[in-house]
Amino acid sequence: MKVAVFGAGAFGGWTALELARRGARVTLFDAWGPGNTRASSGGETRVIRATYGSHAVYTDMALEALDRWRAYEARWQQTFFRQTGALWMFGPPNDGAFGRASAEALSARGARIETLSAADAARKYPQIDFNGIAGAIFEPDAGYLLARRACEHVATCLAAAGGQYRLGAAAAPVHLDPPRSGLPRAIPLIDGQQVEADCFVFACGPWLGTLFPDVVGDLIVPTRQEVYYFGPPAGDARFGDEQLPVWVDFRQRLMYGIPGNANRGFKVADDTPGAVFDPTSGSRDPDERGIGAARRFVAERFPALAKAPLTGTEVCQYESTPDSHFIVDRHPAAADVWIAGGGSGHGFKMGPVIGDMIASCVREDAAPDPRFALRRFASPPPGGWQQKWS
């Protein structure tokens, strides 16, 4: 079987690798390269955690993904996962229900989870000011992943497994005229070349809506997300990942960060979906209001960093669905075309699991998970789609 995969991010790269390992002849395409700065999978780091409240499907997927990341590290003799643990801090108006549901789900699966009072957490992490925090949970097996490096390495492993990587992008919108009798379908690239294959997988993140305007359209909305890096004092290890875990401040807004962050600095970001964004040509210059808000937050929660210099910024994007659940489904009008996306700000960690899922659908004709099906959008739930959950 000859398969073309478009998009070398977390979903597409792992899908291509899994397909190659199952004997498919795979070509992986990306417009700017694995882990590039326009991609939702770009950037140095991404959090990996299995705290998902009552959304047990993602708890299960994240725990499996964590096992797979560790297994791949052992096989490759490479390090992409840094186990720091993850500290969730809760305060008004959040009553901690998300934390309690997460702790219950993890405990039911035999995963480690600790419940902490604000006083206990303050004694454990004196570099954090817990003012306004009512309680916390700590997930010891969580941490962060080296995102860009992992994308690059997966593409390298694809070549070692017999697959190919090419710089290229499908022309938008994708026209799926019936293939000529007895011949495979052909998809045009933006440079005019044609790609023929027995099956196509489109894992193009924020570009899926423009590639498939009738099927996906605004079911995936790219939003502008700013990330800030602050520089701790020289020689101060309190804000590195040896002494501080990945952290999440879940109150009126959800702020999160990664200490150490592959030596880039102290990473701080707001999980709230930003303005709708053009991932191809949108400005990635930081916004002064966003920088100011981040500085105020850091001064409040990490007082010793109140005057820390801003050492870097990034603008990435979420590519979110109305319910924040993924899309993994066959194109309704083309049985040889699969669509995978809607990472919604939490998909990167799931790459190995999503890749296995799609490879099973393509090679073994396995049924996609109905929770990720496109048809769910045909009937919005009463009261409309829920807000983004974390």
Features:
390 residues, alpha/beta, D-Amino Acid Oxidase, Chain A, domain 2, 8-stranded mixed β-sheet, 6-stranded mixed β-sheet, 8 helices, globular
List the helices and strands and how they pair.
Elements: E1 2-6, H1 10-21, E2 25-30, E3 45-48, H2 56-76, E4 81-83, E5 86-90, H3 97-108, E6 114-117, H4 118-124, E7 135-139, E8 143-146, H5 147-160, E9 164-167, E10 185-188, E11 194-197, E12 199-202, H6 208-211, E13 221-230, E14 246-250, E15 254-258, E16 266-270, H7 288-301, E17 310-320, E18 327-331, E19 334-341, H8 351-364
Parallel strand pairs: 1-2, 1-12, 2-9, 5-14, 12-19
Antiparallel strand pairs: 3-8, 4-8, 5-7, 6-7, 10-11, 13-16, 13-17, 14-15, 15-16, 18-19
Helix pairs in contact: 1-5, 1-8
Quaternary arrangement of the chains shown? single chain
Estimate the global geometry from the Cα principal axes: globular
CATH architecture: 2-Layer Sandwich
The CATH topology annotation reads as D-Amino Acid Oxidase, Chain A, domain 2
Main sheet: strand order? 6-7-5-14-15-16-13-17
What do we call the CATH homologous superfamily?
Answer: D-Amino Acid Oxidase, subunit A, domain 2
The biggest sheet, with number of strands, parallel, antiparallel or mixed sense and barrel status, is:
8 strands, mixed
Task: Estimate what percentage of residues fall within beta strands.
Answer: 25-35%
Alpha-beta content class:
alpha/beta
Q: How many beta-strand elements? A: 19
- The secondary-structure element order is EHEEHEEHEHEEHEEEEHEEEEHEEEH
Overall pLDDT level: 95
Tell me the domain tally. 1
Helix content range of the residues, please? 25-40%
First-residue to last-residue Cα separation: 38 Å
Which stretches of 5+ consecutive residues score pLDDT under 50? none
* Number of helical stretches of at least 4 residues: 8
Radius of gyration in whole Å, from Cα? 21 Å
CATH class: Alpha Beta
